[in-house]
Write a structure and sequence with these properties.
This protein is α+β, with helices and mostly antiparallel strands. Helices cover 40% and strands 27% of the residues. The protein has a 4-stranded mixed β-sheet with strand order 1-6-5-3. A two-stranded antiparallel sheet has the order 2-4. A hairpin with a 2-residue loop joins strand 5 and strand 6. The longest helix is centred in the N-terminal third of the chain and has 33 residues.
Length: 134
């Protein structure tokens, strides 16, 4: 696999892997390149995780209000989906979360406050309070 260091026999490496550009020799220069690439990837991943944690903190303070039409008994016409939650967060609070990352087991079909989780990054989830009003 790419960026993987393995031990291969000399003949296999010299006659098959190197001519087909499937591998390069593990010289100090190549190893330094690989280490710097891995460090850059790790740094980028750490930045993304930090941004996800900041968004999760912002979401704790937010109560997202979504207006819908409802009948007399409190049942709403249609439902509130993860797409609507994502769009309203973008419009009102300028927080962009993909609708696929919002963990809504089933669409919201009743009035009131409901807490919804959003998977922002590996191990980082944010909780969104959604208030469905008339």
């Amino acid at each position: 696999k790419k960026n993987e260091v393995i031990n291969a026999s000399d003949g296999y490496a010299r006659n098959f892997l190197f001519p087909k550009n499937l591998a390069v020799e593990a010289t100090t220069e190549n190893m330094q390149k690989l280490n710097s690439q891995n460090q850059a990837k790790q740094y980028k991943k750490d930045l993304e995780k930090e941004q996800a944690q900041q968004i999760a903190k912002k979401l704790e303070d937010i109560t997202l209000e979504i207006k819908v039409q409802a009948g007399e008994n409190g049942k709403i016409f249609g439902s509130v989906s993860s797409k609507e939650i994502s769009e309203n967060l973008e419009k009102k609070y300028k927080i962009a979360i993909d609708k696929k990352k919002i963990d809504l087991k089933e669409p919201i079909k009743v009035l009131g406050i409901k807490t919804v989780e959003a998977k922002l990054f590996e191990g980082v989830t944010g909780k969104i309070k959604v208030n469905v009003i008339v």
